[in-house]
Amino acid sequence: MPVGIFRVCLVVITAIVNHPLLFPEENGTVPENMEEIIQKMKEREVSLRLEQLRLEQEIADQEAAQKAVESAAEVVEGSKEEKVRWDMWTALSMVIFLLIELWRQDFQEGNWQDTGGEEDDMAVLGRAFKGVSFPDKAVLASFYEKRILGTTGDVARMREMVEGFADDLLEALRSVCNRDADMEVEDCMGVGSMYENWRVRKPFVCDLIVPFAPPEPYCFRCQAWCSSDSSPPDEQGYGTIKVCRADEDVTGCICDKTKLGEDMLCLLHSQANTTRPSSEMEDLLCFKNTQYLDADQVMKWFQIAVTKAWNRISHKYEFDLSFSLLDSPGALKIKFRSGKSIAFNLTPVVQYENSDVYFISHFPRSGLAAELPSSTHWFLTFAVYERRFIQLVSKTLPANACHVSCLQILSFVHGKQCSLTGPSGLSNYHLKTVMLHLLQAHPSQDWAPEKLEARLQDMLKYLEKCLHEKKLYHFFIGNGKVPAELGFPIIFQRAEPLNLFRPFVLHRDVYRKTVDTFHEMLRNMSALINEYTVHIPLAHTNGIRKESL
Description:
Oligomer: single chain
Organism: Probosciger aterrimus
Protein name: Inositol 1,4,5-trisphosphate receptor-interacting protein
Shape: elongated
Low-confidence stretches: 22-31, 108-125, 269-277, 535-549
Mean pLDDT: 79
Keywords: Cell membrane, Coiled coil, Glycoprotein, Membrane, Nucleus, Signal, Transmembrane, Transmembrane helix
Strand content: 5-15%
Family: Belongs to the ITPRIP family.
InterPro entries: ITPRIP-like, Mab-21_HhH/H2TH-like, MAB21L/cGLR
Number of strands: 10
CATH topology of the domain at 127-248 and 281-531: Beta Polymerase, domain 2
């Protein structure tokens, strides 16, 4: 802009200096060609005015350009300030997220297990109990003695009979199998409600698991979902089983984990361990063209082996044996000539390393059971540790403790309610998980027999809370407070807690049905219990109440 002003001033000065009237001629006479000079001056004046207009236009354009530059600078400065504010909010959001994540990890590592001292939560969460008449301890005691104890007297004799027959059947199975090519079957173990002494509803079914191993020189290499850094939500609680040669070091060489290419060979395994034929791996019950154990193949093999074993020893028994469920490999039923029958499950499992955690081929179905991701994914069962934990805790509880009684009553009432309104997403395993959590949370003296009513209400309120939050965590997975006496694998204690109610998030119709059934059970609890309870005189009831006070 200063250059433009200077140019305008220069043009004006030049015009003044060149003006004919400023320096007139000495003779003072008017020249003859005055008109021509005047005409030229007018033309010069016009040209100067045009030049002035052009310069003014240039000055205006320069001023506009300067303003545009200044406005652009202001926009850039504003964007910088906006970016600074955005960066500040981003950083603040990240800090908040990290704080929430740290709190969540701390909560999952231990605090989620702490249910003791939650009286305020229980009071808030017990909304479903408003207006519900709950049976008193006298009615509960009479119900337990008449209905529970009266129907479980033959359980021990049934267990003994089933175990003896299962041992004989497995011995015959070993004799009909090819020791050089077939799987090697070990002794069976009893797990579940029948062996934890809380099964109350008929038919009584014994659950037996049978560990098996591949023939030499092969072995199983198991990998749980928590062994890897990340796993999909639908694979949590599962694992895979790889069939390898015993002398094969799958962890020490990268050739099994990396594609080397067509023009590269592993110097360790290129000659000693060539690719095994597909037929050989299928003979080892693997999924087609893989080294991973196939649960469906195991089911077929086990059913055929059990059938051969029964044909060998059937002449020794005066009953028939048959498979009761087609989709379960070891669901067997003994049919006597009198018409009575006994059902039991004989399920093949694979031991996880040197622990008592097992990969189970087929898990008992329930209303909330999720489908397996594939037939090479096996569900992990902690049934052996659950039985040991109950036995360990029972040694520290008062005589005739009420923990098993609470679970039996709750299981019985829930089963009766489901028979009236249809199945729900809750299973007996969920009820047992609630009891395990409360066993760890409450001190031993809280489980005295006279506190049956209070502990039963605690279990119902805890279950109501879990249903409300759609969260019931597996007792062992992610629980850092498991007693060291159990020898529980540390890898599962450090794993992310497993939510047994996760399917409720995915299946809203099942969740709604489950919640409705639970609330209906609460409303009908007194009626369901009184239906199976003998009449108790009022004086006797008052006497029991005074003694408890």
